[in-house]
Specification:
Layout lengths: L2 E3 H8 L3 H9 L6 E2 L6 E4 H10 L16 E3 L4 E3 L2 E2 H7 L2 H10 L3 H6 L5 E2 L5 E2 L25 H9 L10 H15 L8 H17 L12 H9 L6 H13 L7 H11 L4 H12 L7 H11 L6 H10 L17 H17 L33 H16 L7 H12 L5 H24 L16
Antiparallel strand pairs: 1-3, 2-3, 4-5, 5-6, 7-8
Helix pairs in contact: 4-11, 5-19, 7-8, 8-9, 8-13, 9-10, 9-19, 10-11, 11-16, 11-19, 12-13, 12-19, 13-19, 14-18, 16-18
């Protein structure tokens, strides 16, 4: 059988590539991925039959949005053509965000010393006459420290939370924070690319820095500052690296539900803060970013590996979904979750279990009534290798039952429980990371300059 690429198939049909992919989602044509997962391939025979028959007319129209930000492969996303997993192994979150926003290869030059460039496989290409560096050399640094200015806006966002319940989860706080930050930023209505990029840096920095501090930041990167807002004790190097990788892996995922909502808001020329607020409203749903919190609760319910078969079995009997498993795009496994779990395992293996006190004043932020004790409470273990054993038991039981593969939500929940972060921390990590993607898509809508307007397929009584 002869296989052709998307451009050739679209040309033969006389349609745009975006329309071709709409045909795929509607089941009009079938596709397979190339061995490297980067290209879609189509049967030349099937395309020829469709070309002779003509375009399908009987189905309702489908919204298709052309975008250069992210494409989805067999098991992973590609950010402007670059493997997100390669970036997660090497790059600072701030640098990846700049790449999503601008597509400027210069971001890698600014992030790495000596004029070295990041290659598509995540390695570094040396300048002429210079030996090739190790993949992680020099790339963990961010392109300058991001801060929210003016400081009065940040102080207002902190003050706005004083009347909120002490055990409110971080995602709920972020919705308050972004509203106040936006109201205090007089530059928010400037929608040219350079201004939006500058606003994006301020906005993400403000989201992190306005959260209640639980510890002292170990540095100035977004990952280091976010850790201090979600966990009351210092990070080990390995777990901090896992958090950095999680931010990169979750920075964008094509037209996920929250991203579509954010794009619609941006198409109406909503300012960047309103775009992020729109995304946050959708992200918290249990079928989207809220799935990580559901996975946290699942792991909390299993106190030791031997309980995994019973807990999974009871959920199956009740007809419930198992959180942290299955994906609408990655049917055969989510490589983002696999990589993040590997980094967590490595961090725990290198560090082992330690104990450290947690200041009592911080405990109000770590869980509500009836919540299980989390690592890091006074006398509790800070790093808990037993949580990895529980995750392994859950994975084994899911395989035994031939249930769906794990996804990145399970890995995110594992990071939270192993590290002793506050409950719901996974949602906050997801939100801070995905804000970068929402703003990248918003920039495309600002440039496009027309309102996204879906049409309904009416099913009600006929008009009178």
């Amino acid at each position: 059988m002869e296989w052709i690429d998307a451009a050739t198939a679209a040309e033969r049909l006389g349609i745009k590539p975006a329309t071709l992919y709409a045909y795929v989602s509607r089941g009009v044509v079938q596709r397979r991925h190339s061995e490297d997962g980067r290209r879609s391939l189509f049967s030349a025979e099937e395309i020829e039959r469709l070309a002779r028959r003509g375009r399908p007319r009987a189905q309702p129209p489908e919204l298709v949005i052309e975008s250069a930000v992210t494409s989805l492969g067999v098991d992973r996303p590609y950010y402007r053509g670059t493997d997100a997993l390669a970036l997660a192994r090497t790059a600072a979150f701030e640098t990846v965000a700049e790449w999503l926003w601008t597509g400027d290869p210069g971001v890698w030059l600014r992030a790495a010393p000596g004029g070295r460039r990041l290659q598509p496989d995540g390695g570094l290409r040396a300048t002429p006459g210079e030996r090739r560096l190790e993949p992680d050399a020099g790339l963990r640094g961010a392109p300058g420290t991001w801060r929210f200015e003016p400081g009065d806006g940040l102080r207002a966002a902190v003050a706005a939370q004083r009347g909120l319940p002490g055990d409110l989860m971080p995602l709920d706080r972020l919705q308050v924070i972004v509203t106040v930050l936006g109201a205090s930023d007089s530059l928010r209505y400037q929608l040219d690319p350079d201004s939006v990029t500058a606003t994006a840096r301020r906005l993400i920095a403000g989201l992190v820095d306005a959260l209640p501090p639980l510890g002292e930041p170990q540095g100035d990167t977004i990952a280091e500052r976010l850790w201090s807002r979600l966990c009351p004790h210092p990070a080990t190097p390995g777990l901090l690296d896992a958090l950095r990788a999680a931010l990169v892996l979750l920075a964008d995922h094509e037209l996920a539900a929250s991203t579509l909502a954010a794009r619609v808001a941006a198409s109406a020329k909503a300012d960047p803060y309103a775009v992020v607020l729109t995304g946050l409203g959708v992200l918290g749903g249990p079928l989207h970013g809220g799935a990580s919190y559901a996975a946290e609760r699942l792991l909390d319910e299993i106190t030791h590996p031997g309980e995994a078969p019973r807990v999974i079995g009871e959920r199956v009997r009740r007809g419930e979904r198992i959180p942290g498993f299955g994906h609408s795009v990655y049917k055969n496994g989510d490589a983002r979750g696999t990589l993040l779990l590997d980094l967590i395992r490595k961090a725990v293996t290198e560090t082992g279990a330690r104990t450290a006190p947690c200041p009592p004043a911080k405990r109000a932020h770590r869980g509500g009534p009836g919540e299980p004790a989390r690592p890091g409470d006074p006398g509790e273990i800070v790093l808990r290798p037993d949580r990895i054993d529980v995750v392994d038991a859950v994975l084994a039981e899911m395989r035994r039952r031939r249930l769906p593969h794990p996804n990145v939500d399970l890995a995110l929940a594992t990071l939270v429980t192993v590290s002793g972060m506050t409950r719901g921390a996974g949602e906050a990590i997801f939100a801070v990371a995905r804000a970068a993607g929402w703003l990248a898509h918003a920039m495309e809508e600002y440039r496009r300059g027309s309102l996204l307007r879906l049409r309904a397929s009416y099913t009600g009584p006929p008009p009178k």
